[in-house]
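Case study 2.
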Amino acid sequence: MRLGPRFRMPFKRRLEGKTDYRKRLKLLISKKLRLVVRKSSKHIRAQIVEYDPKGDKTLVFASSEELKKYGWSNPGNNLPCCYLVGLLVGKKALKKKINSAILDIGLQRSTKGSRVYAVLKGALDAGLSIPHSPEILPPEERIRGEHIVKYAKKMKKEKLKKQFSLSKPEEISKLFEDVKAKILKS
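Prediction:
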């Protein structure tokens, strides 16, 4: 146990690995709205958040669970689904007259072409203005799910049935386009 006159106990959320206070402070000082993207093993969530001293206020929220209303039947954590969540949160933000934000990925690692940046690309395509570098965005064929189709074609039938038991990978590109069209119409 650390004791002594110079020891300072870190904040609880820092100890738990939930918050990087230096990064959060920089985002809050800008006084801009934040596009907060959080991912779990099954779902992805995106929200537009405004800072308030009493606690952050969520102005717009979208989740991969919401995509079921638009006909999405595939898992809620793949790249096409993340793009659709970004598109959905962007459309909802524009309806509430929100035009710009800053991306907040929290403690997640910044990896080129990752699911977090697929959400960013969806929000950009919806019409939001978010500062970014075009190199980090995933390529268009990955967003449409063509990499999943190629992977499924290489698999043996027994393993294919086991891994893709809930969805049909060969139909993901068509389903993606249908759901994207429904979101853009709403």
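Residues 18-185 form a domain with the Nucleotidyltransferase; domain 5 fold (CATH 3.30.420.100).
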